[in-house]
Amino acid sequence: MAETNETIVLETTKGRVVIALRADLAPNHVERIKTLTTQGFYNGVPFHRVIDGFMAQTGDPTGTGSGGSELPDLNAEFNAEPHVRGTCSMARTNFPHSANSQFFICFSDARFLDRQYTVWGKVIEGMEVVDTIKRGEPVRDPDRIVKATVAAA
């Protein structure tokens, strides 16, 4: 898949990850990811919660899991896309309409999350990089997104 404005690139401390955005599934969440990426919000943000065999979570500049952007929380856009290896989905609290800036990338199938979390993208390049992100909950000396960009059309 060619990089377009429907793709974001994460340059991480472990290497490059390319994510195809799925506005057809979650237009408001994709718009939020693009907005925050364009603002440089994700630059330097740690992968603060990384559970082996499950997922790598990022998007909280505080690195605590309780932070987010100054933008309002999003209404859920739950969809039928399955949570499988490479799926990118929004993190949230127990309240369904609480997604803001945090997201996670699935290491493997996590179908128990289907229709309960908003899938907004899929890793199309660099899953081997995601596989090497340092594990922990919380992670000590975490890997980070060095720079996130929306790929030019």
TrEMBL record:
One of its GO terms (molecular function) is peptidyl-prolyl cis-trans isomerase activity. Residues 4-153 form the PPIase cyclophilin-type domain. It catalyses: [protein]-peptidylproline (omega=180) = [protein]-peptidylproline (omega=0). PPIases accelerate the folding of proteins. It catalyzes the cis-trans isomerization of proline imidic peptide bonds in oligopeptides. Belongs to the cyclophilin-type PPIase family. PANTHER family: PEPTIDYL-PROLYL CIS-TRANS ISOMERASE-RELATED, PEPTIDYLPROLYL ISOMERASE DOMAIN AND WD REPEAT-CONTAINING PROTEIN 1. This is Peptidyl-prolyl cis-trans isomerase. It comes from Methylorubrum extorquens DSM 13060.
